[in-house]
């Protein structure tokens, strides 16, 4: 992840919430994937992004995702799931699980989605403590710590920029100012922050959704698309279910589905069968 951030061009990291969506991201050729806390909460618990999901549930899903793809994976770890000791544990366990980066935010607990009203932020000292604990807790110096501030909506852009500077000083590798409300604000963020920055592209959210080339021109180094796949899966899945209920068949959307071979191929089925054949007895006598 650190090498990607140091290289040319903006790094695009679409969101995923399970191994299927992670494979779609990786096989499309993206350089990194983002484990969306909102998507995991919805898919694992049937609950919105309101701080309901636990550390154990997130790391279990993140571990499986990281094991299923071979590109760097960033994980949304909300506020770190407690005090500084909890943050250290979170970072160490995420690193051991195969993740390449974590994103920690300055909201109070329980947190809210970054594009919903009513978010509250902790004081600067508490958040800088989280960042320092995360940086100190990692074993691999290349493990990336992303610091997010939600102060723009609660306290205004200037307060968010002041926090961003302090978070970078505390050791964050990437700064994420959540929910700027115009292209001009996005430009101001990049003009004022002397660190790599992250853009959060949320369809229907508070921030303009811009092409990656425009984000790069503004100065962003990393762009995440947390729930683009979640939204599309929800939309298409609902359309399929409505059609099946009304017509009694799925044929009307068959051309929009992966066929059997393509779906299994998404998960390396030929490699699995070759591995099975390598070790399986074929005549019942142990001969192969």
Question: What this model shows, in words?
Answer:
- The chain has 288 residues and is of the alpha/beta class.
- It has a single domain, classed as Phosphoenolpyruvate-binding domains (TIM Barrel, Alpha-Beta Barrel).
- Helix content is 47%, strand content 12%.
- The protein has 13 helices and 8 strands.
- Strands 6-5-4-3-2-1-8-7 form an 8-stranded parallel β-sheet.
- Helix 5 runs parallel beside helix 6.
- The protein is globular, with a radius of gyration of 21 Å.
Topology:
Elements: H1 2-6, E1 11-16, H2 19-27, E2 33-35, H3 37-45, H4 55-68, E3 73-76, H5 84-96, E4 101-105, H6 124-137, E5 144-149, H7 151-155, H8 157-169, E6 174-177, H9 183-192, E7 198-200, H10 212-218, E8 222-225, H11 228-247, H12 260-265, H13 269-279
Parallel strand pairs: 1-2, 1-8, 2-3, 3-4, 4-5, 5-6, 7-8
Q: Determine the strand fraction and express it as a percent band.
A: 5-15%
Helix % is 40-55%
Q: What are the segments in which pLDDT stays under 50 over at least 5 consecutive residues? A: none
| β-strand number | 8
In whole angstroms, the N-to-C terminal distance is 43 Å
Number of domains: 1
Q: What's the CATH C level?
A: Alpha Beta
The secondary structure category is alpha/beta
User: Order of strands across the biggest sheet?
Assistant: 6-5-4-3-2-1-8-7
Roughly what is the average pLDDT, rounded to an integer? 93
Which topology does CATH recognise? TIM Barrel
Organism: Roseivivax isoporae LMG 25204
GO molecular function: oxo-acid-lyase activity
Protein name: Carboxyvinyl-carboxyphosphonate phosphorylmutase
InterPro entries: ICL/PEPM, Pyrv/PenolPyrv_kinase-like_dom, Pyrv_kinase-like_dom_sf
């Amino acid at each position: 992840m650190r090498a990607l951030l140091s290289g040319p061009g903006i790094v695009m990291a679409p969101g995923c919430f399970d191994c299927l969506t992670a494979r779609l991201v990786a096989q499309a050729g993206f350089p990194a994937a983002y484990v969306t806390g909102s998507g995991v909460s919805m898919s694992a618990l049937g609950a919105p992004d309101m701080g309901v999901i636990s550390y154990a549930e997130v790391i279990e899903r993140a571990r499986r995702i990281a094991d299923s793809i071979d590109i760097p994976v960033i994980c949304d770890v909300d506020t770190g799931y407690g005090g500084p000791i909890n943050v250290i544990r979170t970072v160490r366990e995420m690193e051991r699980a195969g993740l390449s980066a974590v994103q920690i935010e300055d909201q109070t607990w329980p947190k809210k989605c970054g594009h919903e009203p009513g978010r509250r932020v902790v004081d600067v000292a508490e958040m800088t403590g989280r960042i320092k604990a995360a940086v100190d807790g990692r074993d691999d110096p290349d493990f990336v710590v992303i610091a997010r501030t939600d102060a723009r909506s609660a306290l205004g852009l200037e307060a968010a920029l002041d926090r961003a500077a302090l978070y970078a000083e505390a050791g964050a590798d990437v700064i994420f100012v959540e929910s700027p409300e115009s292209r001009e604000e996005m430009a101001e963020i990049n003009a004022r922050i002397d660190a790599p920055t992250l853009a959060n592209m949320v369809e229907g959210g508070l921030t303009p959704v811009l092409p990656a080339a425009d984000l790069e021109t503004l100065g962003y180094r990393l762009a995440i698309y947390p729930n683009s796949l979640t939204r599309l899966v929800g939309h298409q899945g609902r359309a399929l279910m409505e059609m099946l209920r009304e017509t009694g068949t799925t044929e009307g959307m068959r051309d929009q589905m992966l066929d059997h071979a393509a779906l299994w191929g998404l998960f390396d089925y030929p490699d699995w069968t070759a591995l099975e054949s390598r070790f399986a007895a074929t005549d019942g006598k142990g001969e192969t």
